Amino acid sequence: MSLYSAGVEYGIHCLLYLVDERGDSREASVRDLADLQGVPQEYLAKVFTKLAKAKLVVATEGVRGGFRLGRPSDEITLLDIVTAIDGRKLIFDCRDIRGRCAVFDGCAPQWATEGICGINAAMLTAQKRMEEALDQQTILDLARRTGRKAPAEFAGQISGWLSERKESRAGAAGDSIAVVQVDD
Fold it and tell me: Check: CATH 1.10.10.10 for 6-89+138-171?
C-alpha cells in the first residue's frame, strides 16, 4: 500500500506539464491535462481544487481558461504538492507497546517506558528525512531532469498539443468552462 494517493502522482505530473522548457509557467485546462495523461478528469478536478486552495496553481478565466502555476516553478516543492493533496501523513503511528511485555506482568518498570520509544524515534527520523528530501526538490528540478531525458522535440510536442487543445476549446461552440473558486 502506498503512503501517498494517486492524486499526488497525478498532481506532480500535471504541474510538470504546466512548466515549459525554460521553467516558465504555461496554462492548461484540467480536461486537457487529464486527456494528455490518460487519467480521470473528475478525480483530477478534485486534485486541482486542493492545489488551488494551497495557491500552487491559479485558475485563469475565459473560454481558453485553465490553470497555471501559482508561484515560480523553482519555489514549488514536492513536499508542497504532497501536503496540498494528501495533507501531512505520518509514516508510523506508535502504539507505545513497549510497556506491555508479558514478562512485566502488567507492571512495566520505569526503564522500559521512560523517554521516547526508540522505534518511534527511528521512524520520526525517517519521516523527517523523507520530508526534507521532498522539500529539496522543486517542480523546476523535475522539469529539467525530464527535459534532459526526453528527446529535444518532446517539449515542443507538449506545447503544440496543449495549444491545439486550447484553440479548439476556444473555437468550440457551447463549451462551458468550470472555474474553481477557492475560499481563503
Answer: yes
